[in-house]
Amino acid sequence: MAAAPSISLSIFLFLSLHFTSSFSKIPLSFPSSLLLRPQSSPIDPLLPYQTSFFTQILDHFNFNPQSYQSFQQRYLINDTYWGGAAHNSPIFVYTGNEGNIEWFAQNTGFLLQYAPHFRALVVFIEHRFYGKSIPFGGDEDVANSNSSMLGYLSSTQALADYATLITDLKKNLSAVDSPVLVFGGSYGGMLAAWFRLKYPHIALGALASSAPILQLENITSPYAFNNIVTQDFKSESQNCYSVIKESWHLIDITSTHPQGPQLLRKSFKFCKEAEAESIKNWLSTAIIYTAMTDYPTPSNFLNPLPAYPVKQMCKAIDDPRSGNDSFTKLYGAANIYYNFTGTVTCFDLDDDSDPHDLGDWSWQACTEMILPTGGNTKESIFPASTWHFADRFQFCKTFFDVEPRRIWIPTHFGGHNIERVLKRFGSNIIFFNGLRDPWSGGGVLKNISSTIIAIVAKEGAHHVDLRFSNPDDPKWLKDVRKQEVNIIEDWLSQYYLDLAQY
Q1: Which of 201, 205, 268, 435 is paired with 185 by a 20 to 30 Å CA distance?
Q2: What are phi and psi for residue 43, nearest 5 degrees?
């Protein structure tokens, strides 16, 4: 028996997506004494990080006595390749996402693999309220009990956490002049970009991968996300697209027949009979996540998947051995996502386990992270639907008794006219986006200035550049990483030149 989706990222997308659907080389100026030399020993991706905890302030923005409460914030650190404070060697910091930091470290190899080249210290910081970084004595039940407790969970508090922890860490290491580079993917990428903009005195630069900082109302269309999912599958096979598009109505019709629920259970190998909406959510989750993680090599980020899983899904649908039975075709496709290892005997749609500790994203999606992505045109692979803020409002009022702050993110961090705004004051940010990633619709896809660079990969998926490299990586992906490294080298070169003048 196996869970349907791991509810972790399902919550991320359900609340942000489904509210209204039915469901260069080293610069010559680089100081020779600080030249970055690769290590001769190979990188071990399983090399363990040391786990540490930092006593973090609960509320960074309130000076009443209550604000001086604290909690233990987890971070992972690897100093194997660090050149040390005496050489002002850099510090690479991953700005943690909405989940267990160990999971992100296991799926983010860029920092560790390039640490020898840059002689960098590597640090992964866990986001408050996720993993083991739980306020109120580490008791999740207390921390999640009501809006008064959950009110301390926000992006602004998280960024202040990172600023406080990094500052303290540098002080303890006597590394005050060591430059800090922040990295992040998805929500973590949003945090990395915002951190550079809000704390430029702490972070020299940021690599924000697949960061949908423009996936906001009146900036990016709520239809953009599912338009990309649709195009991903349509680009592989018109028949594949058509079979999936017709499946939602077919599931609805079948479920109304007397023997329909039993037929659906048998066709999809569910552990027990399920309602049509649950089945459609199960199937749409597989389609969306496969589009997000359409990596060129096998992965185990959300679920174990083969290389190019969208292509593999469509091959299953187009397989002539499945005949004309749509459910057989759809099961074969869903099986790519849910059961690629072949170990599942039946699918439990009632399983609400959260193996990556992402459950609190629902609170963030109900307060500040209003990312409209649930609209579907009539050409969409999903049933046509319109995104309405009112649906989000009603859910959040019912579930948390809170009203979403509809325009807080663009008010606090910006977003409107970003090209005109950021080129006047921002610098040293790399925005990577892969155009097969549905979140790229809300990403920065054009250079804003000579130091705010957009790297766009036509075949790229969700933060694929930050994943551990693979011998089978295509040339375009290797080129993306080389470009990112060259840009970071430029930033560091200029930093060390400036440092030498003081």
Answers
A1: 201
A2: -75, 135
pLDDT score of 47 more than 90: no
pLDDT of residue 358: 74
88 is written with which tokens? 């002002």
Name the band, by pLDDT with cuts 50, 70 and 90, for residue 354.
Answer: confident
- How does the average pLDDT of the chain come out, rounded? 90
- Provide the token pair at 122: 């590597």
Residue 481's pLDDT band, with cuts at 50, 70 and 90, is very high
- What does the pLDDT read at residue 44? 58
Tell whether 338 and 445 lie within a shared domain: no
What residues contact residue 58 under an 8 Å CB cut-off, 6+ apart? Answer: 67, 68, 69, 70, 71, 135, 152
CATH of the domain at 445: 3.40.50.1820
Same domain, 201 and 226: no
Distance in angstroms (rounded) separating the CA atoms of residues 346 and 273: 11
Residues 455 and 489 in one domain: yes
Q: What is the pLDDT of residue 23?
A: 35
Do residues 18 and 374 make contact, with C-beta atoms less than 8 angstroms apart? yes
Please tell me the distance from the alpha carbon of residue 264 to that of residue 255, in angstroms, as a whole number. Answer: 7
Which sequence positions are flagged as catalytic? 186, 437, 462
Radius of gyration of the chain (CA): 23
The range of the structural domain enclosing residue 73 comes to 41-218+409-500
The token duo for 141 is 């039940």
- The β-bridge partners of 53 are 74
Contacts 24+ apart (CB under 8 A), 407-412: 407/217, 408/368, 409/155, 409/216, 409/368, 409/369, 409/370, 410/216, 410/217, 410/219, 412/156
CA distance 161 to 168: 11
Asked if residues 340 and 303 have their Cβ atoms less than 8 Å apart, the reply is yes
In a domain, 444, yes or no: yes
The C-alpha atoms of residue 230 and residue 245 are separated, in whole angstroms, by: 9
- The CA distance from 217 to 124, in Å, is 31
